[in-house]
Amino acid sequence: MAQATEPLKKVSIIISRGTLEGIYPGLIMANGARMEGIEANIFFTFFGLHAVHKKKMKKIRVDTVGNPALGIPPVIGMIPGMSAMVTKMMLKEMDKLDIPPVDEFLEMIAAAGATLYACKAAMDMFHFTREDLIDDVSDVLTVGQFYTLAAGGTIIFT
Prior knowledge:
Blueprint (H helix, E strand, L loop, with lengths): L9 E6 L4 H16 L3 E6 L29 H4 L4 H15 L5 H10 L3 E5 H7 L10 E5 L1 H8 L3 E4 L1
Parallel strand pairs: 1-2, 1-5, 2-3, 3-4
């Protein structure tokens, strides 16, 4: 007999990759959490910061090199324009499912009550400033501050 478990109340999602396939899973999970009434925090670190960087967020692409799930040999993935073409195809399919572009999705998730955070170490490493980030980012946190924030919930790394 399966033992009853408490429902999930809080989730903290870490987004560390700056590609479409690295960013969207975390955004979809955060959106789903908020739709279920679950507290959701998103922590953007390393290249995941591109999702919340004003100048970089509209340039996010699919990684066609070294992505075996695409079924494209690496040498083909390196052809100029291949990433742009695959990105366009993926965005078209996502649009059919009413999945919004990154900027709109972030705005929607924040409006639904999710809280967005940037990683201080990654910000310092890339020489990003708070002004580089979209307004929906609530704060820039150290890893220790993130762990304190995530305490009592589940941490998901995408």
